[in-house]
Amino acid sequence: MGAGLAPVISTVELPGMTPLRRGKVRDTFDLGDALLMVASDRISAFDVILPTPIPLKGIILTQLSRYWFEETRHIVPNHLITASIQDFPDDLKARNGKLAGRSMIVRKAERIDFECVVRGYLAGSGWAEYQRAGTVADLPVAPGLRQAEQLPEPVFTPAMKNDEGHDENISIQRLRDEIGVDLATRLEDVSLQLYSFAADHARRRGIVLADTKFEFGFVNGELTLIDEALTPDSSRFWDASTYEPGHDQPSFDKQFVRDWLLASGWDKEPPAPELPGRVVTGTSSRYHEAFKRLTGRSLWYETLDG
Q: Residues 56, 243, 119, CA angle at the centre, nearest 5°?
């Protein structure tokens, strides 16, 4: 199915099925021996879900994660069982219109409640910390760097996961204290390997991967990449052709939405304002451009009709 035919879905409702969890974007359903993860077209900013959906967003997130899961399985196993509607159970195939393109059946995992962030460039909270203390994740960084400048080497900066509000940036030492040195070291090593692989790939496709975050869990005792991977929701993507350190960079993520919200005077408390059409269209096109560049593919997905 061509992506332009996809319905816009703000809330995933599957009759007879109660969500195990509703996140800011994904709704997760328990299938017994596996989970169904459905990415809606919702978008959040400053930890508030906005009232205006972004067309194609959920499909792009799912299909891009599917791509990266395939590309990185030589580094670490992931939880994906299938993202093909053709392989779904019959009762889910009957809901084809809602699920096609935006759904994955994944293995159940014992989640590690820390996000594994890797920063290759000074941006966001990493830039704020560097300005304040000359450090990133409490680690000293070379002096004199500018905003958005590439770090001498990528830095692992973990965060304590918070499903309701802001994740809390923590030091590597605190991560070691919380989960043990061996697991903390393993998470750091795997996260840096994933970032290095993806950053090299993205650069060849004209995109700078400034930073990204991963989530991991255990499946049958094996460390496993879960949730999503290297999407515009979990990563900061910049256009390599216009990249220039010293200021904010145009991006292929939801910074376009954040910038409009900040300019609107919104106080970052719910309810959030409706997004104007130009912001909705601009955001959708940025997500779509990231997908096309990173994968080298047109946005297409399987339906039961082929």
A: 75
In the beta sheet, which residues pair with residue 222?
A: 219
Residue 163, burial from CB neighbour count under 10 angstroms (0-12, 13-18, 19+) = exposed
Q: Whats the size of the chain, residue-wise?
A: 306
DSSP calls for 40-66: -S--EETTEE-SS--TTHHHHHHHHHH
Domains of the chain: 3-108 (3.30.200.20), 111-239 (3.30.470.20)
Pair 201, 293: CB distance under 8 Å: no
Cα gap 169→260, rounded to integer Å: 26
pLDDT digit string (tens) for 180-214?
999 999 999 999 999 999 999 999 999 999 999 99
Spell out a b/e string for 34-54, using b for 16 or more CB atoms within 10 Å of the CB, else e.
Answer: bbbbbbbbbbebbeebbebbb
| Cα–Cα distance, 221 to 82 (Å, whole number) | 21
Q: What is the pTM of this model?
A: 0.93
> What value does the CA radius of gyration of the chain take, rounded to a whole number of Å?
19
Helices (H) and strands (E) in the chain, counts: 8, 16
The model's pLDDT over 64-85, given as tens digits with 9 standing for 90+, comes to 999 999 999 999 999 999 999 9
Positive/negative CA dihedral, 264, 267, 268, 273 = negative
Q: Where are the beta strands (DSSP E) in the chain?
A: 19-22, 26-30, 35-39, 44-45, 48-49, 80-82, 103-106, 110-111, 114-121, 135-136, 139-140, 150-160, 168-169, 207-219, 222-226, 235-239
Rounded to an integer, what distance in angstroms lies between the CA atom of residue 157 and that of residue 214?
11
Its sign, for the CA torsion 279, 281, 282, 287, is positive
CA distance 143 to 141: 6
CB 187 within 8 A of CB 158: yes
Residue 275, C-beta contacts closer than 8 angstroms, at least 6 positions apart: 50, 52, 257, 260, 283
